[in-house]
Design goal:
The chain is an alpha/beta fold. 36% of the residues lie in helices and 24% in strands. Strand 5, helix 5 and strand 6 form a beta-alpha-beta unit. Bound molecules: L-homoserine (HSE).
Length: 446
């Protein structure tokens, strides 16, 4: 048998502990699949743990572990973008392959990290960074390598999907469900990353780069979370045959495809109305799902647990197994044995522009509150029609507080700048009492 592969696990939180458990549980399986003995030689942890095998060195000096001769592959699961970055850069400079679940770090500094890895002929693998246990990085970089990807849409934050599902199905309050998601190990250390859409935006930036061969551009992802979603809107959407899901979209808009908007790429994360019978509308709880539309394959859907110890450890160890096979050859340079980090050759990355929010095209759900006066509905619909906005459905509820009526309008796709102008005019109508509530609606994700 060839020499053993030595792993260091940096961080023993939910994911790090999940990796240790997975290796213990499936040791024989891992050896049979790789033909190599896989051993954990060092773990990086701030406090000594007595549940760790005594043969494993526990060390709080993570930089030392990243350079240790006793380590072939460094698994970074501490999270964050400062110390984790220093450690990964140090490991790369010391010729270590790195496996990380750190989507925030890669979304924000991946261009620099991948360039350094290429220069040092090592690989930074990151299956666990996107959609938990779903092997979406491998699918998009390898299985779909012959396709041109037009768009992808996905539920890519397990915590957010868990919260939305529990609220809708059980009417549970937002805060209670969030606490449960934290207890189950789904939520980020700072859960605002989950509920404000930032975690999903990190993952979308990674997926979009792989889909379109563009550099990582997290700062250009339009990002809206779920904190403003009310049960009232969830119920009106259901009444109209739609469901509100928190989705990430990466869409290539071509000038020749008949769209109203500009050519470029839309990167957006936001609550979205989708038809109740759409596949993504029925992905519930902590499940993630990514729907990819590619040519010539067509639509394919990838679904599974998007967060939690077991799901994330599965993805971490899939990367380790890939690297173990590379390390088993005489030539383990990443260029010869690996698809490029972002699926396209680094010198072939494209400068296709990312569209600004005002240039993006989606349908809309509008909730307008107005006094129940004759002609109000006509005024609202005239403003929309003057702006060239096509109404798809209207729902007017009977008057409730102080003679006001909620009017719900669904529109066909429109460029956001036009919708902004129309909403500003609607809000100026004397009979309209509140700010217009708007939620995007998308028919892509059928
Ligand atoms: N907080 C993340 C989620 C964990 O809920 O999806 C997995 O990335």
């Amino acid at each position: 048998m060839s020499k053993s592969i030595k792993l260091a696990i940096l961080g023993l939180g939910t994911v790090g502990t999940g990796v240790v458990n997975l290796i213990n549980d499936n040791l024989a399986e891992l050896k049979r699949r790789s033909g190599r003995e896989i051993i954990i030689t060092e773990v990086g942890t701030r406090r000594q743990r007595d549940d760790i095998d005594p043969s494993i060195i526990q060390n709080d000096d993570l930089m030392a572990i990243a350079a240790s001769d006793n380590v072939d592959i460094v698994i970074e699961v501490i999270g964050g973008t400062t110390l984790a970055k220093d450690i990964i850069m140090h490991a790369i400079k010391n010729g270590k392959h790195v496996v990380t679940a750190n989507k925030a770090l890669l979304a924000e500094h991946g261009n620099e990290i991948f360039a350094l890895a290429e220069a040092h002929d090592v690989h930074v693998a990151y299956e666990a960074a996107v959609a938990g246990g779903i092997p979406i990085i491998k699918v998009m970089r390898e299985a779909l390598a012959a396709n041109k990807i037009d768009w992808l849409a996905g539920i890519i934050n397990g915590t957010g999907n868990f919260i939305m599902t529990e609220m809708r199905d059980k009417g549970r309050p937002f805060e209670d469900v969030l606490v449960e998601a934290q207890e189950l190990g789904y939520a980020e250390a700072d859960p605002t990353f989950d509920v404000e859409g930032i975690d999903a935006a990190h993952k979308l930036a990674l997926l979009a780069s792989i889909a379109f061969g563009i550099p990582l551009q997290f700062d250009k992802v339009y990002c809206e979370g779920i904190t403003g979603i009310t049960l009232q809107d969830v119920n009106y959407a259901e009444e109209l045959g739609y469901r509100i899901k928190h989705l990430g979209f990466a869409v290539r808009r071509n000038s020749e495809d008949g769209q109203q908007g500009s050519a470029g790429i839309e990167l957006r994360v936001h609550p979205t109305l989708i038809p109740q019978d759409a596949l993504l509308a029925n992905v519930n709880g902590v499940k993630n799902a990514v729907l990819v539309n590619s040519h010539p394959l067509g639509q394919t859907l990838y679904c599974g647990d998007g967060a939690g110890a077991g799901a994330t450890a599965s993805a971490v160890m899939a990367d380790v197994m890939d690297l173990v096979r590379v390390l088993g050859t005489n030539d383990h340079s990443q260029r010869s044995h690996h698809v490029p980090h972002l699926a396209f050759m680094p010198e072939q990355l494209s400068d296709t522009p990312i569209l600004r929010a005002e240039q993006m095209t989606t349908g809309y759900y509008l909730r307008v509150h107005a006094y129940d006066n004759p002609g109000v509905l006509a005024d609202i619909t005239r403003i929309l029609s003057d702006a060239g906005i096509n109404i798809d459905a209207i729902l007017q509820k009977p008057a409730h507080k102080l003679g006001q009526v909620p009017v719900i309008i669904l529109t066909l796709p429109v460029v956001e700048s036009q919708m902004n102008l129309a909403i500003a005019k609607i809000e100026k109508l004397a009979a309209v009492t509140d700010k217009v509530v708007r939620i995007r609606l998308d028919e892509l994700a059928q």
